[in-house]
């Protein structure tokens, strides 16, 4: 229990568990609400700044990429210097950047501030789940994680609805402004209710060089995707992949790595559970982005109406995630998560037939199917990952889980941007380009179905958790 504050395991008894759960849940809600609400506002942002389809994608991708780049470093820093400290800084950065984003004067400033917001998000993701795992013992952890995951999906649920409502009546800038009071509330709760601190790796060194290599490698890969099929994009991807290999070699040699490679080499549950997350989000994240554009461009719906339709998937996720979390305390997570992945794959395959005549009823029913699959997958899979490591690795495990999720999101958006570049080019999506948009969407869902099908096998291959 090296470096654990205030007397080891007795801390769990002294901590206000409900307050910790509330803070973690609100933090998770804040970050996901921002992501899903901005998707619905993208057409409005694109029109104001006259952004082409690829540049518009970067409004979402810059946030995701920045989060992915900094998750592992902040996860390690949280284990060393304190998870509460990192969470507090993250909420503060996220809230201030949201305020500044509401006054962004140009596309470049908007995307730059989204990077800052992504850094704050990385600090939140790297610490919130780790704190939950530190406070709640194994028998209660699944339920607590299920509630946290449910609020994550609640953010995804309310994002399209409130985002569409705010965009339609007050403009897209109001979305950023609306998150500021909630961020301030979370900061007040942390200072008022969260008295404890958790830092099991206190005193260990931080690998700054490894962090830089890792971050630059991710930039190369994701930015390279956005430039394909240009030769520069290919070179950036090659350099990025080489950087990941260099990072892994370094982490196997240094005394205090930011990512303990043995967690992947010697822990089958941890390795395959994280692989399942990567494939799951690579396959499913861009669904909301693509359907937001489809409903507004092809179906001609308002942002508010499109948001009400898109709410179907995350609403089901939020409703069933706590149940799935509780079940994962008693039933093997491998079984629940694999069934969930199977349902998602079916839903993605049904969207391959999407065209201008597809009924809204079909879209809503399919979103409900995918949402139920996500609920069965996410909470049990998270429980499996956090229960497979020792306490001193909670921050890194939480950050690794979130990193796989964010890299998956980045790949999902990267695939989408690549298809837009190939099919549509760097132009605004006007009516004459609608057939090309539909063709790129069909190809995207074919690729996403294949990725999700691979995720089923990764989920099954993890073996038993208990």
Describe the structure in your own words:
The protein has 466 residues and is mainly alpha-helical. The chain has two domains: 10-206 and 256-461, MFS general substrate transporter like domains (Growth Hormone, Chain: A, Up-down Bundle); 207-255. The chain is built from 18 helices and no strands. α2 (17-49) packs antiparallel against α3, α2 (17-49) packs antiparallel against α5 (107-135) and α14 runs parallel beside α16. The longest helix is centred in the N-terminal third of the chain and has 33 residues, at 17-49. The relative contact order is 0.16. Mean pLDDT is 84; it is low at 1-14.
The assigned structural class equals: mainly alpha
Number of strands: 0
User: How many separate helices?
Assistant: 18
Low-confidence stretches: 1-14
**Rg over C-alpha atoms, rounded to the nearest angstrom:** 21 Å
Named CATH architecture of the largest domain: Up-down Bundle
- Please, how many domains? 2
Please trace the helix and strand order, writing H or E for each element: HHHHHHHHHHHHHHHHHH
Beta-strand percentage range: under 5%
- What is the residue-averaged pLDDT? 84
Shape: globular
Q: What's the CATH class of the largest domain, please? A: Mainly Alpha
The CATH topology assignment of the largest domain is Growth Hormone, Chain: A
User: First CA to last CA: what distance?
Assistant: 23 Å
What can be said about the biggest beta sheet?
A: none
Assign a percent range to the helix content: over 70%
CATH superfamily of the largest domain: MFS general substrate transporter like domains
